[in-house]
């Protein structure tokens, strides 16, 4: 802190004689334009207008000089200043199209949207102000090509061009140049540590492959969120939102969202800003009680495993239990024959009983900005961001992120043609826990599994002897075994729950531990001021992961795992044919610790036709690579019914388990009552889970035919996946209609995904083992293991050899219709092609609707100080595939609306809004809560 104060005192002490000019900026209707930028031409000296359109510009030079006035959505204007007393009143003409807006992300250099070599979507300050969604981040869903995956009210994941779950490791999100991804799991945590909506300068989205410039993680898209500079946007801004959420399961609940921004430029050498935001709400209740694997099954089934019910994952063969009891003399041998050869699961707890169902987020950030030369030739920035909150993350299980904490710190040096930055990201799991293991181990608190299943078997046999039907005998057996069960709401349940979520061991607890870090640096230099004939850029990056879950999630029980990667790129840009044809070519090399380096080239052409160069045709091709994530390589995570196991060679030996062997014969095959299993068993001696499922369905009636269905796992360790991406597009403005068309075709090879396998405790896995060869045969021993529960299920990380293709197109149209009414329509088509028969156990996880339609209509000048906006979207139903659950997401129609009223004297805007007005509750993630309605009122000061 002392360093910060010294820096502030140093820069604040630097002062030179300055002059100032004042003025105002309005539109053609004499309405104030807040947030307009005023810059002295030839320098970086600038200011911005406040809410009532006025500005004060401090300058170090005497007149005459020229100022340039710009604002998003308006044509720029230059004004000659001849006197400090000059009354400057600037009227800006509204721009007829947004295609002249400037973007940076597509080529790492400023260019008009119209000339971007790839598809790009943008949300500016004005778009943020008029969004009808509860927050600007929610409003991103109205952009073309965006599909949200909502795991929690405070955790939303962006999906562009498919192949995404909540954990979208193929998508990047940069906030002021910093990757927002979790250091441990490598995916973006929504806006939990993002940016406040009153501090957003612009949002840019590249929905396609961007690996050639931004590295291997930008495989299917990248989002840039840029905050406001304290040199240009000064003063105090604040907002307060209060509203209600409504859901059938959760009822009606309060919703609060508050934020404040402080910013000040002490002089042209030093500026600083700080932000604080707070959000609190009741989360969408997750109440899907369908069975995870078999459609139509409910709680009445003896082996029920509900989607949002936890603890029922513990399941065993009840006949095998009887055999073990008989061997111990606890059950008559004759009674074993009364037990069915089927699995029974324990009684679980509903998710809503295992969490407080609260969603929240608190963000704090501050930055210090120094300009040693008083302009943008060099700016030094120190930025710190802190985020904490509550949310539900869905991966292989459902996890409650409780007081999850993440922080980022950055030092950056940037100028007109370069930047050099370094930052670190660290996270702390707080009091987060796995809800599946919470249910499992709360059950074990009141009765261990052996006792529960033993009581079940004994009660079932006794009930059958008493003449009960199998259905009634099962009900009686469960009632007997459930005697003493802790009921939600009781003190016994609360005590057990609190003990479990504070315990890190998966055998007795569910707490998630995470103290992982990322250290990252990158640089870029543009030679455009040194080389005039062509624009050349070079850059590179380096990243070090320090994985530290203390053995809870990764195989890092003996200490942190360090993993590094680096990359370098160059880009060449040149215009030809009277600057109508723009060529852009780039290539990037990326290397990570466990894999060979890969090259990612991209070439694109943009041709500007027409007299005004407003018919822009573009085409691009690039090859991208995505290195396996740290999760793909180093995870060793017991999720109850399976172990998630990464395939780095050293990871396979680090992960070990000691497991109990059921039945006397099984113990004879295993050489004792326990076995030690490690990753080599999973990858080298296992069966595909799909073939085991087919075997189990038939084994009771035809064991020989069932055995013939078994397939030994033949899987390689995970390696980088590759995409070849082709894209065509057209942008123009014809007869007052803004047009944006694009089409893409992607070819994926070595696509990374998951494979579920089952490893027997003993024997040797082989294709179609012959049960007639006798018990000495290693293949026959595996059949015994599968039939008696002596196996371990794993989820492996690997690649499919089958080529996957995806293709789609989008149409975006916008037009000013009557008066100042704006109408926007966009449509997206998305499809993929994967021959499932060639790799039946592999899940591609496209998780994207084939059809999406979005419409918006609004008028920010309906009458004086009053505006409104309505947006609607529809998507067709689609298949959802994930490690947690598979199923169908139904089609949905969602309408959001807002009305706003400006209070110029108070420098404020009041807004009333609603999301999903009158619509049906809908899902975006199978297993997450259905999304209901939100109604809110907001008051924003100095927006």
Overall residue-averaged pLDDT value:
91
Distance between the termini: 30 Å
Largest sheet composition: 22 strands, antiparallel, barrel
Helix content: 10-25%
Radius of gyration: 31 Å
Strand content: 35-45%
Outline: elongated
Which structural category fits the helices and strands? mainly beta
- Give the beta-strand count: 52
Number of helices, where a helix is a run of at least 4 consecutive DSSP H or I residues: 17
Question: Unreliable segments (pLDDT under 50, ≥5 consecutive)?
Answer: 1-17
Please characterize this protein's 3D structure.
This protein has 943 residues and is mainly beta. The protein is built from 17 helices and 52 strands. The chain has a 22-stranded antiparallel β-barrel. A hairpin with an 8-residue loop joins strand 24 (358-370) and strand 25. It is elongated and about 105 Å long. It starts with a helix and ends with a strand.
List the helices and strands and how they pair.
Layout (H helix, E strand, L loop, with lengths): L1 H11 L6 E8 L10 E4 L5 E3 L5 E6 L5 E6 L6 E5 L6 E4 L10 E2 L7 E2 L8 E4 H6 L5 H4 L7 E6 L2 E5 L12 E4 L2 E2 L20 E7 L4 H4 L7 E6 L7 E13 L3 E15 L4 E13 L26 E2 L4 E3 H10 L5 H4 L6 E3 L3 E2 L7 E13 L8 E16 L3 E17 L3 E11 L4 E2 H12 L2 H17 L4 H12 L9 H11 L15 E10 L8 E13 L13 E16 L4 E12 L5 E12 L5 E12 L3 H5 L1 E3 L4 E3 L3 H6 L1 E5 L3 H7 L3 E5 H6 L2 E2 H11 L3 H5 L13 E14 L2 E13 L2 E9 L17 H10 L3 E9 L4 E13 L5 E12 L17 E13 L2 E10 L2 E3 L6 E3 L2 E12 L4 E8 L17 E9 L2
Parallel strand pairs: 1-7, 13-16, 36-43
Antiparallel strand pairs: 1-4, 2-3, 2-5, 5-6, 8-9, 10-15, 11-12, 13-14, 15-16, 17-18, 17-52, 18-19, 19-24, 20-23, 21-22, 24-25, 25-26, 26-27, 26-28, 27-29, 29-30, 30-31, 31-32, 32-33, 33-34, 34-40, 35-36, 37-38, 39-42, 40-41, 41-44, 42-43, 44-45, 45-46, 46-47, 47-50, 48-49, 50-51, 51-52
Helix pairs in contact: 5-8, 7-10, 8-9
